[in-house]
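tool_call predict_complex ligand=adenosine-5'-triphosphate
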Amino acid sequence: MLAKSNSTRRDSVVVIGLGRFGASVARSLVASGHEVLAMDTDEDTVQSLAAELPHVVRADATDLGALKQLSVTDFSHAVVSIGANLEASVLTVLNLAQLGMKDIWAKANSPQHGRITERVGAHHVIYPEADMGERVAHLVTGKMMDFIEFDDGFAIAKTRAPMETHSKTLAMSNVRKKHGITVVGIKRRHQDFIYAKPETEIKPGDHLIVAGPTPLIEKFSALY
Ligand code: ATP
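tool_result ok
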């Protein structure tokens, strides 16, 4: 069991529900050195993750007493990754909110699910399937190699440098003025990413990291 402390652990996370999403969140957090308490009601799930997650316990997060016993409020963040069982998801968020958890992230399978978890105390709602679906749609239908969109229709994408930019500096090709997007970084084969500067020359085969409104990013990527 984790050592108890009176103060809140910085960047320590309780992950509740270890399905594909929750287990992946927990693994990534552990890999990046964070303290993680992972829990699931299913003994087989707990056993199967014991080798990868240093602190994984079988517990029912709808049980307020169990959460208190595990001192979950010593952790700075909670991720509730229970999708299919709406009642368990909502009760878990409610319990965490009642205990005074300051940063609760809840995975939701639908907008209705998301709204309910927000109502009962989730500070952030994540829609992994919907978000990934949207992202893949952009990648499949467009020329982008990677794509992240923010709430306000602003996106960052990795795209191939279009011909019109080849063998010119960014200042010469003037893509910001012509296309309304900003080149923020360049990746050249076998080299690390570099920050884009006005004097940076684009070479055929370069990959560009571009930022701007989503429709303009899509148009720019389609130039290749
Ligand atoms: P996935 O991330 O695989 O898509 P999912 O959205 O289908 O998961 P569920 O199957 O509902 O989500 O739940 C994920 C995990 O949460 C399961 O391993 C389940 O045992 C666990 N779980 C369900 N209820 C509770 C609870 N009350 N307390 C802790 N863990 C729970």
